[in-house]
Amino acid sequence: MFSIRNIIKRYNGRAVLDDVSFTAEDRKITYILGTSGSGKSTLLKTMIGAIKPDAGEILFGDMDITKQTERGLDPYRRKIGMLFQQGALINYLNVFDNIALPMREHTTLDENIIKIMVKMKLELVGLRDFEELMPSQLSGGMQKRVALARALALDPAIIFFDEPTSGLDPIGRSVITKLIADLNRLMGISCIVVSHAVEEALRTADRIVILYRGKVIAEGTPQEIRQSPDALVQQFITGNVEGPIAFRASSKDFGEDLLVG
Ligand SMILES: Nc1ncnc2c1ncn2[C@@H]1O[C@H](COP(=O)(O)OP(=O)(O)OP(=O)(O)O)[C@@H](O)[C@H]1O
Ligand SMILES: [Mg+2]
Q: Among 7, 8, 11, which is best to mutate for testing ligand 1, by the most ligand atoms less than 8 A from CB?
């Protein structure tokens, strides 16, 4: 479905995505894993056409998403839903209106139909009785579920999730992870999930891509990833502090940095 080929994205001369290539299949769950700052959100934003890479192609069928104008992206955007890492809901709209918003903006559906559709989406995420509440009256986990209901508003064929379980308690994480699996298995929705939750990915994904410093260091089934002989991959999936992964974002020596000031 997606063929990502040699994507490069630079900010201030630094390659945040450095020759990234992988594929994501139709009707499958693909997890993109990586430490903080490895370029996951940037990669997702290039895949939805929100930012243009400096080089490379993202083929969706035979359309290159990176070469489209805003107008050219319209039909594609109608097929996708996106759950953002931050700022998922509109603060001054209640739950109902948040979910109804994409329907009101992108369709000419009658309000009565919209009402039924919103209720169906809320039922799907297990929040049917909460439509009158404002986002500030919801827990973090509930906010993520409402945001998911909104991502589902236009019945997308593909949903992109950016850290859907971060900041949630273990039950909240399981609820979201199960929802992702259900959307995929019961409704055939393709799911592209950016995360650093290794265990969830190993349990849920059909395919896993691991990013490290803007490069793909591993790609395969959970089974293949578990058995990878690569020291970087093993350190990442076991969460070991000792290993080749450096946890500092700066490439400069700390002492040098202090002196130069
Ligand atoms: N608009 C931008 N301008 C400059 N630098 C940016 C911009 N967007 C991202 N970056 C840099 O690119 C790098 C990767 O950022 P990105 O948000 O893709 O990481 P991530 O893997 O999603 O991290 P996290 O797990 O913490 O969400 C970071 O060093 C970040 O500072
Ligand atoms: Mg991110």
A: 11
